Structures are given as structure tokens and as C-alpha cells.
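The records we work with from here on pair a chain with its fold. A complete example follows; check for yourself that the lines match position by position.
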Amino acid sequence: MCYRAVRMIAEAAASVPWLVYQGREEIPDHPLLALVERPNPLDTGVSFIEAICSNLLLYGNAYIEAAFIDERLREIYSLRPDRMSVTPGKNGWPSAYV
């Protein structure tokens, strides 16, 4: 029952069309839209958003890795929360994720 509920929420979230605005003006050709539509060579935009939402609902966290090529954000990957660990900083806040 839980799996079905999570899947329904993730699928609904992934079906929402993405829009980018600057002030009141929509920017239909913003690079973020292309990145979300095809986040990496292995995922579609729908599968990426479904993974992020499912991880957040099931684990309470969702992690995204950004891949930069020539100092530009080119790909994003959903990371499995059960394989992530937090490295605490001196002040108690996370300083890194492994």
C-alpha cells in the first residue's frame, strides 16, 4: 500500500510541467528546462523527478549530484539516500556528503 501511494505522488509530481520566470516574464528557453527534461544520459526528466520525489518520501532526504563540464552545469544525477553519509563539521552542520 505504501509503495503505491509513493509511486502515485512521484508520478503526479513528475507530470507537472516546469516553467521558469524572471519576475512576471516566462523564459521558455531557459537552460534549466533543458537540464530537467534530460538530466543525464541515463535518465529522462520524468524518471529523474520520480526518483527525487520517491527518495524524499521514503527516506526523508533526496540528494542530487551536479556534473560540471567546462565550468557549466551539464548533468544532474539522483543519488540513493541509503548510500549517502554525512560528514559533520566542527560547528555540527554537515561539511560534506560521502
User: Anything to note?
Assistant: The longest strand covers residues 72-79.
